[in-house]
């Protein structure tokens, strides 16, 4: 029997399809050969291969089945289709915005990775929440297009109205006029969606415009301030204006007195208000004045009293006003008269006045010198020269009269004398001078029987004593005299003498000088050598001679009495030259011995030289060499002598210092980084010891130890220094070696994602695996590099990894692992249940995940809609909410909830606890062990 095996049809599909979740009905890529049938989750038309893109996002595998019509052989090929999630575009924006401000945009999109904004045709942006200011008024449609990494797009839009900031403006009708003034207010502001606030002379009004107002008169022109503030959401604007109210004149004046005696100078005070432009006065006596403030006006009558009526008229653009007032003027009958005791005299002048006035009841005088009197007869005096006017005032209580008489007070001539010095010694001249403003003569009396004349003179006294000098003068026209005197003192002179022991010696020559003067209290010595003067009674002075020949000095003594009278005497001093002994040493110190002390003779002016060392025997040699053979100080002396037997001594010191010995103990010399080394200074006779470690340290020996934090081997040496600066160097026999330290690190992962997991895989991530030591905090440990460990009890465990490298250097790292013994509730905030009956097995159900489920005695899980109604409830911990809702009239949960935010609540009772007697049916946590939150359902 023959069998024919026909081949299967060859099916072919192009690349896999991918669609976004919001594309509605799409067509799958065509399969060949044509004529087959599509089937599987999401296929709408088996013949055409149309597909529902609105199913839950995920991976789908619809199949294409084909039967060869010729052979009847069939085959199926699976096609990969991916449904990508679509972002949800959403944003919030104010419906009214400003053309001068950024419009706030809040991006509320979910599931997107980017966005594009169309800002109403006047701008675009790809920013998350762009800041944008619209160019002008109008209504704009904002479009937000949100997209994700799959290229899926969602769009939403919103209209916004843009307006502009306000511009305040107003109109006052009228804005000025005479009082009382009625004013209308008009609001001309441009302020869309605005409010208005008025301020009229401190009074506030809110609204379009205040009512018509009446403004009254003031004393002057009154400006009533008006402001309008227009405000909308874009800002505010203020306009200011003013209402000017002009017054009508109100004429008012006042008299100083309204009843006066003739003659009287009346002061009329204008108190008018209202700003009159034209002011006219009529004084009632046939005279007048044009102007605001009239001058004082004289009223006079002969023998009969008279009433004068004063009239004031004021006029301006708003009107006129008139005011009047009466003045009574009565006649005058008093007469002033008095005499003087003398019309003139020399200062100081005494004067008496005598009254002869008539018809008076009161009399007073002003003497023009600051003195006054209120009696008929009075006396005064004038101390200063000049012409004074004596004034008499008389009155009868109504009228008054005055009389003035002059008095001349002649000045006495001034007389002032002076002397250049009021004291002098016998034989010294006194110079006198006198000043006078009007001298008729100038006479001097000196007190010793001598006289002189003239304004300047001189006089010498032959005997000591105190003398009175007098100067007198007389004015040539008035005969007024003046005199002035002073005293002068004439002091005796001392007698100067010097006593000295010896006037010849070698330089530096010290000489004691004695002042043996008589009548001397002070003295001044000039030593004749350019030095500072001396002031002692018996000074000792050193005279120098820096040359090679004798030098002579002249000493001068000025003896001085306590009145500064002086006498002078001199003495001669001869100073012989002294050689200068001086020498230098080639070296002045040494840190070793024996050593030569080499001298160099630098003496000047000498012919003989005697040397010694440490006071030993003298050596006569210009420049000898000595030997220092032990530690100590050597004093070298040189005595140099010249031909005048004058000598000089010079000394120098040479020191042999004790040398130090360098020694050191350092521990440790080998170790791990960082290596902490302690040092012990074993040097002898060392003031300081310095340490050098190659590339590490160069400085004083550390007293607190030294940390070497570099890896390597380092050479070193020390230098010991004595107090005198002598040094000793020691190279250390052993080098310092610092080994590297490993870096310990590890990571760990639980073996499963379940919250109850207590097993962990540990991984050694240190930079060495030479030696590892794990401790897990529960009494267990391990030496393998990557151990697995399980914890049997809840608690907090410190896991430590200690690693060691081949040099024995180690490092440790510690971390904390917590195994809870408490209930922990983990609840997702969104899930994607099956759509149209098709689920993808990914996040299709919603339930809490609880760590410590074994501790739960009673469990209840509830889901509520936005109105607080229960849409799902279970007491089975393993049951999920699949997004279906119980509508009440059906036994089954067969109504699918739509995209919305739901409330959830978990109520737990643990083992050993008493359950709540009353179980709440609201979405709020009001009892113990209740957990509440929100979840977003997305299909």
Which regions contain 5 or more consecutive residues with pLDDT less than 50? 889-893
Helical percentage? under 10%
User: Order of strands across the biggest sheet?
Assistant: 13-18-17-15-16
How large is the share of residues in beta strands?
over 45%
Cα-based radius of gyration, to the nearest Å: 65 Å
Structural class: mainly beta
Overall geometry comes to flat
Strands, total number: 91
N- and C-termini, Cα separation: 60 Å
Mean pLDDT: 89
Helix count equals 0
Taking the sheet with the most strands, its summary is:
5 strands, mixed
Keywords:
939 residues, five-stranded mixed β-sheet, mainly beta, 91 strands, single chain, flat
What does this 3D model show about the protein?
The two termini are 60 Å apart. Helices cover 0% and strands 51% of the residues. A five-stranded mixed sheet has the order 13-18-17-15-16, with no helix packed on it. It has a five-stranded mixed sheet with strand order 20-26-25-22-23, with no helix packed on it. By secondary structure, it is mostly beta strands. Residues 889-893 have low confidence and may be disordered. It has no helices and 91 strands.
Topology record:
Blueprint: E1 12-13, E2 17-20, E3 25-27, E4 31-32, E5 37-39, E6 43-45, E7 50-52, E8 58-60, E9 63-67, E10 74-78, E11 81-84, E12 91-93, E13 96-98, E14 105-107, E15 114-119, E16 124-125, E17 138-147, E18 153-163, E19 170-173, E20 176-178, E21 181-187, E22 195-200, E23 203-206, E24 213-215, E25 222-232, E26 235-246, E27 253-255, E28 259-261, E29 264-266, E30 268-270, E31 278-282, E32 288-290, E33 297-299, E34 306-316, E35 319-330, E36 338-340, E37 344-346, E38 349-355, E39 362-366, E40 372-373, E41 378-382, E42 386-395, E43 400-410, E44 416-419, E45 423-425, E46 429-435, E47 443-445, E48 451-453, E49 456-460, E50 465-474, E51 481-491, E52 498-500, E53 504-506, E54 509-515, E55 522-526, E56 540-543, E57 551-560, E58 566-576, E59 583-585, E60 589-590, E61 595-601, E62 608-613, E63 625-628, E64 632-641, E65 647-656, E66 664-667, E67 670-672, E68 675-681, E69 688-693, E70 697-700, E71 706-708, E72 712-714, E73 716-721, E74 727-731, E75 736-739, E76 746-750, E77 759-764, E78 771-775, E79 781-782, E80 788-790, ...
Parallel strand pairs: 2-11, 13-18, 20-26, 28-35, 37-43, 45-51, 53-58, 60-65, 67-75, 84-91
Antiparallel strand pairs: 1-4, 3-7, 5-9, 6-7, 8-11, 9-10, 12-14, 15-16, 15-17, 17-18, 19-21, 21-24, 22-23, 22-25, 25-26, 27-30, 29-33, 31-32, 31-34, 34-35, 36-38, 38-41, 39-40, 39-42, 42-43, 44-46, 46-49, 47-48, 47-50, 50-51, 52-54, 54-56, 55-57, 57-58, 59-61, 61-63, 62-64, 64-65, 66-68, 68-71, ...
């Amino acid at each position: 029997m023959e069998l024919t095996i026909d081949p299967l049809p060859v099916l072919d599909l192009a690349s896999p399809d991918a669609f976004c979740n919001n594309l509605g009905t799409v067509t799958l890529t065509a399969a060949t050969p044509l004529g087959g049938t599509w089937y599987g989750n999401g296929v709408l038309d088996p013949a055409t291969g149309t597909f529902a893109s609105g199913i839950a996002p995920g991976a789908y595998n619809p199949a294409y089945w084909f039967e060869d019509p010729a052979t009847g052989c069939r085959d199926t090929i699976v096609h990969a289709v991916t449904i990508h999630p679509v972002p949800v575009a959403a944003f919030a924006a104010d419906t009214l915005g400003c053309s001068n401000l950024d419009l706030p945009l809040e991006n509320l999109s979910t599931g997107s990775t980017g966005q594009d904004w169309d800002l109403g045709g006047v701008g675009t942006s790809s920013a998350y929440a762009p800041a944008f200011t619209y160019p002008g008024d109008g209504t704009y449609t904002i479009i937000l297009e949100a997209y994700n990494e799959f290229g899926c797009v969602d769009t939403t839009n919103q209209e916004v109205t843009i307006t502009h900031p306000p511009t305040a403006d107003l109109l006052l009708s009228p804005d000025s006029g005479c009082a009382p003034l009625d004013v209308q207010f008009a609001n001309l502001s441009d302020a869309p969606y605005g409010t208005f606030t008025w301020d009229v002379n401190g009074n506030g009004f809110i609204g379009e415009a205040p009512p018509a107002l009446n403004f009254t008169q003031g004393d002057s022109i009154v400006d009533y301030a008006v402001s309008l503030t227009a405000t909308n959401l874009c800002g505010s604007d203020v306009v200011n204006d003013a209402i000017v109210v002009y017054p009508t004149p109100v004429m008012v004046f006042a008299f100083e007195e309204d009843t006066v005696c003739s003659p009287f100078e009346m002061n009329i005070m204008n108190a008018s208000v209202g700003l009159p432009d034209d002011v006219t006065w009529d004084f009632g006596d046939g005279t007048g004045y044009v102007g605001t403030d009239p001058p004082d006006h004289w009223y006079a009558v002969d023998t009969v009293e008279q009433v004068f009526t004063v009239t004031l008229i004021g006029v301006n653009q708003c009107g006129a006003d008139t005011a009047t007032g009466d003045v009574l003027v009565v006649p005058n009958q008093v007469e002033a008269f008095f005499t003087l005791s003398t019309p003139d005299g020399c200062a100081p002048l005494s004067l008496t006045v005598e009254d002869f006035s008539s018809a008076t009841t009161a009399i007073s005088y002003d003497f023009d010198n600051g003195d006054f009197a209120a009696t008929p007869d009075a006396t005064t005096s004038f101390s200063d020269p000049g012409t004074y006017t004596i004034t008499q005032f008389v009155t009868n209580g109504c009228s008054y009269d005055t009389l003035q008489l002059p008095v001349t007070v002649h000045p006495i001539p001034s007389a002032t004398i002076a002397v250049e010095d009021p004291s002098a010694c016998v034989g010294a001249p006194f110079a006198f001078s006198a000043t006078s403003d009007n001298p008729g003569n100038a006479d001097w009396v000196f007190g010793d029987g001598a006289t002189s004349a003239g304004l300047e003179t001189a006089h010498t006294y032959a005997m000591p004593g105190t003398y009175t000098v007098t100067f007198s003068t007389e004015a040539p026209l008035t005969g007024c005299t003046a005199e002035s005197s002073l005293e002068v003192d004439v002091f005796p002179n001392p007698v100067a003498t010097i006593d000295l022991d010896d006037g010849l010696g070698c330089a530096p020559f010290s000489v004691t000088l004695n002042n043996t003067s008589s009548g001397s209290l002070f003295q001044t010595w000039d030593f004749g050598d350019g030095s500072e003067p001396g002031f002692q009674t018996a000074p000792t002075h050193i005279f120098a001679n820096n040359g090679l020949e004798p030098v002579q000095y002249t000493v001068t003594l000025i003896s001085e009495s306590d009145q500064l009278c002086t006498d002078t005497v001199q003495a001669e001093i001869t100073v012989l030259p002294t050689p200068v002994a001086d020498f230098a040493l080639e070296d002045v110190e040494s840190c070793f011995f024996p050593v030569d002390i080499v001298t160099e003779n630098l003496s000047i002016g000498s012919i003989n030289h005697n040397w010694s060392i440490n006071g030993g025997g003298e050596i006569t040699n210009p420049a000898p060499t000595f030997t220092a053979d032990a530690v100590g100080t050597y004093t070298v002396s040189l005595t140099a002598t010249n031909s005048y037997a004058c000598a000089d001594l010079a000394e120098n010191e040479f020191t042999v210092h004790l040398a130090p010995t360098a020694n050191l103990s350092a521990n440790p010399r080998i170790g791990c980084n960082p290596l902490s080394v302690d040092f012990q200074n074993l040097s002898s006779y060392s003031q300081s010891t310095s340490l050098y470690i190659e590339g590490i340290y160069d400085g004083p020996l550390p007293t607190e130890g030294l940390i070497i934090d570099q890896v390597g081997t380092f050479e070193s040496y020390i230098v010991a220094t004595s107090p005198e600066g002598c040094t000793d160097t020691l190279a250390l026999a052993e080098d310092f070696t610092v080994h590297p330290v490993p870096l310990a690190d590890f990571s760990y992962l639980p073996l499963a994602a379940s919250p109850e997991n207590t097993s962990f895989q540990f991984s050694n991530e240190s930079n060495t695996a030479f030696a590892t030591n794990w401790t897990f905090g529960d009494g267990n440990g391990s030496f393998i590099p990557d151990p697995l460990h399980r914890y049997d009890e809840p608690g907090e465990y410190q896991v430590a990894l200690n690693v060691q490298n081949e040099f024995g250097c180690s490092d440790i790292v510690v971390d904390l692992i917590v195994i809870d013994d408490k209930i922990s509730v983990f609840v997702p905030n969104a899930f994607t249940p099956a759509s149209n009956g098709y689920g993808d097995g990914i996040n299709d159900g919603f339930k809490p995940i609880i760590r410590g489920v074994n501790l739960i005695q009673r469990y209840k899980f509830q889901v509520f809609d936005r109105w607080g109604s229960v849409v799902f409830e279970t007491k089975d911990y393993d049951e999920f909410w699949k997004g279906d809702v119980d509508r009440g009239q059906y036994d089954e949960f067969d109504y699918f909830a739509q995209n919305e935010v739901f409330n959830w609540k978990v109520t737990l009772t643990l083992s050993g606890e008493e359950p709540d007697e009353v179980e709440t049916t609201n979405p709020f946590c009001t009892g113990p062990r209740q957990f509440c939150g929100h979840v977003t359902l997305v299909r």
